[in-house]
Amino acid sequence: MRASRPKVAIAAVAVAALAAAGCAESGRDGSSGNNKDTLVFGVAGDPKVLDPTFASDGESFRVSRQIFETLVRAEEGGTKIVPGLAESWEPDAAGTTWTFKLRSGVKFHDGEAFNAESVCVNFNRWYNSTGLMQSPDVTPYWQDIMGGFAKNEDPELGESLFKSCTAKDELTVDLAFNRVSSKVPSALLLPAFSMHSPKALEQYDASTVAGTATDIKYPSYAMEHPTGTGPFKFKTWDISNKSLTIERNDDYWGDKAKLKTLIFKTISDENARKQALRSGDIQGYDLVGPADVEPLAAEGFNVLTRPAFNVLYLAINQKGNPKLADVRVRQAIAHALNRPALVDSKLPPGAKVATQFIPDTVEGWSDSVPTYEYDVDKAKKLLAEAGATDLTLRFHYPTEVTRPYMPSPKDLFELLSADLQAVGIKVEAIPLKWSPDYLNATTSGSEHDLHFLGWTGDYGDAYNFIGTFFDRPKDEWGYNNKELFDLFAKADTTPDMAERAEIYKELNKKIMEFLPGVPISHSPPAIVLGKDVIGVTASPLTDERFFTAEFKS
């Protein structure tokens, strides 16, 4: 899930809304009182936008996953690809055209039929984007997965992976691609590839993005009229009250949601979310503090721990400070960090030190990468050899945020900056608000030397981790390594999965030799629900399905 994409300011849009937080009767101990039809779920931040085409943040995707559906999806509680709006799919002999057989009887929330033509309307909308729709800040996932557009307005974009969409009959659609890619069909489970009602897209000018690259104004569809096929449909977004309400789609093609109403209530402070759960004002929340996992479970709350499918890393920007282009300096930084102490003291039970930028549950993880154990003397020696004993580094860290891989950024910063200072590196602390300040500062330009970021996997392929970070030049890292980039291109176009996994292993080894940053940890983040709330399965992709949630009778 995107964390390393700069966010831009979203213009405020007037939304007719209800005081959503009042929809649920308060009870005690995380109960919903007498109202068994409504669940209020506490989230750490507001969604940025309701059209997942434009989203790159977890809170937007949390809402989108309830309203929209994709052709394929991840199995409940796992990462395996299973049917979504498509019942089956298969490639042609060349592996470049995929035929999808669609479900029958599916309707969008506005009553329009879902069919092969609607699939093509959606893909052609993305592919034919123009103007600001081609900005990486507006269509981040399309560009990460597909690359370019039908007519690129930026010469650096390159050829699109996607080629064309053909409706063969009402329930059969061909998606053609310009080359074989490991991203197909796995990446099609991403919320960015959700199916939207063609009628609603046209009615609300869904692709009319205005403003500038630094002040984007999204169309009303993206803020007020999201129209999918999912088990819930949009009702209201009360921006001032920081609550968003969705309601059961009684015409859903599959099992109907057990809840009538689901409310996402923004409570940015984790302690405040915890108190709201205990008082019954909410019936669940995400991003449970590591120290609260066991106490909440002991109190009888339903604490669900997700499998660790993420990575926290310390990025090293070689462009900002020329001394960081010396691999010995980067090695010194890696040896200076007491990552085991950080994992033991600041992360939840089950967290582990990362040896590379993918978790060991992903094919391509290697047990033969170079490792950098905590060694103060070795760090000092490497700095001396590199002539960098007087090094001063600008260390950015985020404020006003909690992420699944990063529960307390300030605490993490304080530990690691102390480690760096212990080997003689001077640290200039630069705290910035998460969005847009921190993300803008650390993923563009050259003002940052060190910073935290991380990633929760979108699907179960190594490319989704290391390819996202290192498959092309990026301002976050500030380097150009053609050998790596060429090897990524080879991996992506290798159709045999076993052969591709071996290339990923080689890539992981080369990445850790080159050391563009330091992988810190993999964490199992937790979600908590009220004592009487059942039916939700924790997802390693943070893809929890709330239509199965219910209150025990």
Structural commentary:
Helix 8 runs antiparallel to helix 10 and helix 14 runs antiparallel to helix 15 (497-514). Strand 3 (72-74) and strand 4 (81-83) form a beta hairpin. The chain has two domains: 9-279 and 528-551, D-Maltodextrin-Binding Protein, domain 2 (3-Layer(aba) Sandwich), CATH 3.40.190.10; 310-522, Dipeptide-binding Protein, Domain 3 (Dipeptide-binding Protein, domain 3, Roll). It contains 15 helices and 24 strands. The chain starts with 8 loop residues before the first strand and ends with a strand. The chain is α+β, with helices and mostly antiparallel strands. It has helices at residues 58-67, 116-127, 140-145, 198-203, 220-224, 270-279, 293-298, 327-336, 339-346, 376-385, 409-422, 434-442, 463-470, 482-492, 497-514; strands at residues 9-10, 38-43, 72-74, 81-83, 86-91, 97-102, 162-169, 172-177, 210-212, 215-217, 232-238, 243-248, 261-266, 284-286, 302-305, 310-316, 352-353, 392-399, 426-433, 450-456, 517-522, 526-529, 533-534, 550-551. 26% of the residues lie in helices and 21% in strands.
Short overview:
By secondary structure, this protein is of the alpha+beta class. It has 15 helices and 24 strands.
